[in-house]
Amino acid sequence: MNTDSQTAIVTGASSGIGFAVTEALLGLGFNVVGNARSDRRLIDAATRLNHSSRFVHVAGDIADPAVADALFETAIARFRSVDVLVNCAGAFVAKPIVDYTEEDLDLLINTNLKGFFYPAQRAARHMTANGGGHIVSITASIAMQPHVRVPSVIPALVKGGINAAVRALALELAARNVRVNAIAPGVIDTPLHEPGAVENYRALAPSGAVGTTQDVVDAVLYLVGSRFVTGVVVPVDGGATAGVW
Ligand SMILES: NC(=O)c1ccc[n+]([C@@H]2O[C@H](COP(=O)([O-])OP(=O)(O)OC[C@H]3O[C@@H](n4cnc5c(N)ncnc54)[C@H](OP(=O)(O)O)[C@@H]3O)[C@@H](O)[C@H]2O)c1
């Protein structure tokens, strides 16, 4: 993959999967503009990335369209163009439907759906004018394979909505050389979970394992380098979407 002087925007870049994707892309020579809400956590991430001159960050809630604008304006001013958008910022709340609150619904719709739509819309405008690009979003395999032990109708609604939108947008943009894909992780060991809690989730995959951020990074890098692949949702879930076990 020739990535010299390519630029990526990564949302959710200060932690977990987004941080690991940022680190991997920087390692391949990408410039990265990273986003999360907390400036302090982004500064901490920059420290862990050895203050790479190819990493800049823009703090703000990704549900706010002005933040998507700021990400693209910063990337273009600093690095000239955007080649890859990785939508990683997301929220997850699992509850029986009767227990979900309006706040839960707003959080999950805002972070996941608006956090997909506004950056993807800016990416579509920029990438079609710029000759091409790639949009990859991190969804969740539970949207494709619900589990009776993890009632989560709103995550299924919003992450499943992105999975559907990926195919629609891939078709819309294919002739303009913009690819659109998603990765649907199963349980991945990140700070999203309480420390040690992932051990309790091993039974949620037939492999009996939980995933690592590197498992997701591998899939992101595969998609970033795959010129002929668009409109797919790649499960990275130890087989959880393969069927009943
Ligand atoms: N870990 C899993 O088991 C798992 C499974 C399936 C899917 N996923 C998906 O993978 C993605 C990454 O999750 P993760 O496990 O890496 O979580 P994480 O370690 O908690 O990281 C989440 C990142 O998103 C940022 N973020 C959260 N809300 C945001 C908002 N409204 N605007 C901007 N940034 C925001 C956080 O920073 P701030 O808090 O500072 O904003 C942080 O950088 C999410 O979309 C999640 O749904 C994770």
Model description:
The chain is 40% helix and 16% strand. It has 245 residues and is α/β, with parallel strands linked by helices. The chain has a single domain (7-236), classed as NAD(P)-binding Rossmann-like Domain (Rossmann fold). It has a seven-stranded parallel beta sheet with strand order 3-2-1-4-5-6-7, sandwiched between helices. Helix 1 (16-27) crosses helix 6, helix 3 (65-79) packs parallel to helix 4 and helix 4 runs parallel beside helix 5. It starts with 6 loop residues before the first strand and ends in a 9-residue tail after the last strand. The model has no long low-confidence stretch (mean pLDDT 97). The structure holds NADP nicotinamide-adenine-dinucleotide phosphate (NAP). The site of NADP nicotinamide-adenine-dinucleotide phosphate (NAP) has 31 residues, from helix 1, strand 2 and helix 4.
What's the short story on this structure?
This protein has 245 residues and is α/β, with parallel strands linked by helices. It contains 6 helices and 7 strands; from the N terminus they run βαβαβαβαβαβαβ. The chain has a 7-stranded parallel β-sheet with strand order 3-2-1-4-5-6-7, sandwiched between helices.
